Amino acid sequence: MPEMFDLYDENLNPLGQQIERGELIPRGKYHIVVHILAVNFESKVLITLRNPSKNYGGLWEITGGAAVAGETPLQAAVRELREETGLRALPEALDYRGQLLFKSSSHNHISMFYLFRADFHESSITLQPGETDAARIVFPAEIEQMAKKGEFISFEYLRAKAFYPDIFGENMP
Question: How confident is the model at residue 170 (pLDDT cuts 50, 70, 90)?
Fold first, then answer.
């Protein structure tokens, strides 16, 4: 069965329309993409390695993915975190950090950012085959170095700095 996305206008008003994953999203319409920064009690961040078959394959990123039809952004964030990492979060454990409108000729979406703080370790992580190939738990400064070396998706790092300044601020460990 194809994966379907609900469509919204740029103000997050539902349009009552859906589109199949991979189809060109018409101008002025958007789907929802969620990003979840998981931070443990040692102030380390969970990052995952994208499967080589995916866009930006072989690069590290924070957890995230598209909301499927019928899901709220918060439901999508809880599901993506569980599917890609095995970490289970109650909706109230996710701290909403903001959103960003992304327009391009081929992919329009509204990115919504959440913070998840919990006590987890690498042994807590279960990867999703075909999505994530490895996981690491690192200090934010390590992500900056990885981005400079081209190992971490650069725009993901810039977004992380913007939406999680308390994690990626000047006083990083």
Answer: low
Token pair for residue 158?
Answer: 């810039």
Indicate the residue type of 38: A
Q: Could you give the CA distance from residue 50 to residue 123 in angstroms, rounded to a whole number? A: 19
The letter for the amino acid at 67 is A
Per residue in 51-60, pLDDT (tens digit) is 888 888 899 9
Q: What are the counts of helices (DSSP H) followed by strands (DSSP E) for the chain? A: 4, 9
Tell me how far apart the alpha carbons of residues 169 and 161 are, in angstroms, rounded to a whole number: 7
Domains of the chain: 32-98+118-166 (3.90.79.10)
Give, as one character, the DSSP assignment of residue 90. -
Residue 90 has what pLDDT? 97
CB-CB contact of 173 with 140 (8 Å): yes
Q: Quick one: average pLDDT of 28-53?
A: 95
CA pair distance 96, 143, nearest whole angstrom: 21
